[in-house]
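Table S2 (continued). Query chain:
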Amino acid sequence: MAKDTSTDQQKIKTRFLICSDTHGMESLPGLTRSANQHADVVIHCGDLTTESQIHEFKAAIRLLEAINAPLKLVIAGNHDFTMDIPMFRKKVEEAHLPDDQELIEKTYGFYGEARSLFKNTGITFLDEAIHSFHLQNGALLTVYASPYTPSLGDLGFQYRPDDGHDFAINKNGSPCSVDVVMTHGPPRGIMDYTLSGVRVGSEDLFRALALAKPRPQMHCFGHIHEGWGAKLITWRKKPTPLPSHWTDINNGQSHLISKLSMLREDDERSLSARGTPVKCFATSHCSGDTHPLSRGSQTLFVNAAIEGPPQAMNSEQSNLSTQPPWIVDLELQASPRGAKLFES
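Corresponding output:
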């Protein structure tokens, strides 16, 4: 990717391919291994599987291996409950199947097996934390990752809404320059409507984003399949004491990029990466673009759920069975000289 040297601080144009909620899919249309590089970084925001079975994880690994990119980052989703080992143990104990341990291990693997599948695949599985990577294109990428979603259910990486969750984007309360936040679920108020018209995003996550210093350039997630889309949000200058989407977003200065009701077959943007057709929805927010991202005052939110909603309930909602992944171009700071690639 080309380097932007027009400013005092060197910035490098970096391409992200973002997906989520593939639920056992083995491939994405148009994204196959070739000599051409599709992206600098691939991000998968969880729900690699539907039932957390070993064969589904292996399919997800094949899907990611088929995408040509030097760095691939993955988190778990609520359906990937065997990654949440305490929850996995609890489910096995509650099933009361002492004589079926061999069948359980054949279907779901032994404790920790799902995680071990990602070793030596070129895919980096991230636990909840801040991670930094020195990219092959010369940029420094800092990511906050978290698989946790609010729920009253009993799947993986879930917390009760009344209990809340500490999304520590600012680690220990001190400023930390996070470029990208990748979570499984959305923040409250941003691409989090269900088909029944209820917002289910995390209030704790929204507050953490609003209070981050500086605010991240991009937040990508999935979980709510019908919330597919992207929006460039402009924040109000000062966060309120209890930030919410009602009080802390300047909607008049924000820009909707796309949502399901706007997505049509003839409106789908095909991106060509050095002559190789890629069936993705593309957006760029670098210097010189129509909507360049202003670091600190804006955040690009991307719901990249691939599996479509179960059924459209009105004419405003698309009924696509497979929704396109996102290609996003952003500018990152250059890595320090001599930095080691892909540190975490």
